[in-house]
Amino acid sequence: MNCRFLFIYALALFLCLSCQHENANNSGLSAHSKADYFPTDDKWGYINQAGKVAIHPTFDDNRNFHEGLAAVRKETKWGYIDKEGDLKIPLSYKSVWGFKEGLAKVQTFDNKMGFIDTKGEWVIEPNFDEVAEFSEGRAVFRNDVNYGFIDKQGKPIIPAKYQRTYPFKKGLAKVKLDNKYGLINSVGAIIIPIEYKRVGDLSENLVRVKTEQGFQYMDEKGQPKITNLFQNCTDFVGGFAAAKVKGKYGLINTKGDFVIAPTYHQLFSANEDKWIAALADKFSLITTEGKILTTRTYDQIDTYSEGIAGYRIGYLYGFLDDKGKELTPAQYGLIWSFQEGMSRAAFREGIGFIDKKGNLAIAPEFLDVRDFSEGLARVQLRKWF
């Protein structure tokens, strides 16, 4: 293995570990680690889409902008700034999360959680040991060992009686009771009986459920819709879903009929009306009619984001356009999904940004940088500008 590949391995490993930490922070976990805080020499700030510093790096840690505000930390305390870099909500919290539906979850230094508005005023007092972010006007909360939902006034609208609850999506939420799963609506009425080994989300008026015999689909009223039994299946996307029988995947329509015979080892939606199909660990893009779009197979193909998909050949990554053609060669050590018209890509020199034409948009001159959100990306500079 030559030095170039050794460098790419090391860079990819570092970036993957970094992104695991980043993704965890964005999934409802605490916005800080449990380690003691120490001021760092490499401070965080923000750049704009021209690659210019928009907010100078003065923070020990920071987060993406949501609803016009971003969480920032200095030493042990978190607060929020606006897009001019002005502190709008004081640095006074142990942990914070991004704004969503006009509210942000915060944790006080006595380990209690509540919600503030964009002015920093308490909307829901910090009386909870554990509470999740709002989704469709409901937030999961924990009472002792059980979970329920509160409304935006902090009132328990669905009692804490479940082993586990999940955020509302399209008016329904998955719940677990007695190690079985079902779906409830926004007032707590049971829509899909809590009697299944697994339950999916509502997708195109269908819900996949797992019985003792296998997977099948129900409608949004809890009535059986596709009673064929599958070894596995996915949510519907654009009127189609992947389903597995006799160890192979094919594509079914909303009647449960196969429109692509079950011949693939893996099959999942790529978005953009395309599907990623695998045979013997090699991947291609196909249409819902089964037409193969890619001219060769790949070691990996990612789902589309903003009309672009990533691919991997060996140790290197590149991009596919919306027709499945190679937009760039496989030349990057690692890539990310497109956000706001640009994708991060790892070069030998560091991380830069690629535009949707496959051109270098922002040079790789940063110590660390994250995806754009609301026009700004958080960044650690190699030096002060």
Describe the structure.
There is one protein chain. The protein has 385 residues and is mainly β. It is 6% helix and 49% strand. Strands 2-1-35-34-33-32 form a 6-stranded antiparallel beta sheet. It has a 4-stranded antiparallel beta sheet with strand order 3-4-5-6, with no helix packed on it. It is flat, with a radius of gyration of 23 Å. The two termini are 37 Å apart. The N terminus is likely disordered.
What brief labels describe this structure?
disordered N terminus; 35 strands; single chain; mainly beta; four-stranded antiparallel β-sheet
Write the layout of secondary structure elements.
Layout: H1 3-26, E1 44-47, E2 53-59, E3 61-66, E4 69-74, E5 77-81, E6 87-93, E7 95-96, E8 104-107, E9 113-116, E10 122-128, E11 139-143, E12 146-150, E13 156-162, E14 164-165, E15 172-177, E16 180-185, E17 190-196, E18 198-199, E19 206-210, E20 215-219, E21 224-230, E22 232-233, E23 241-245, E24 248-252, E25 258-264, E26 266-271, E27 274-279, E28 282-286, E29 300-301, E30 309-313, E31 316-320, E32 342-347, E33 350-355, E34 360-373, E35 376-381
Antiparallel strand pairs: 1-2, 1-35, 3-4, 4-5, 5-6, 7-8, 8-9, 9-10, 11-12, 12-13, 14-15, 15-16, 16-17, 18-19, 19-20, 20-21, 22-23, 23-24, 24-25, 26-27, 27-28, 29-30, 30-31, 32-33, 33-34, 34-35
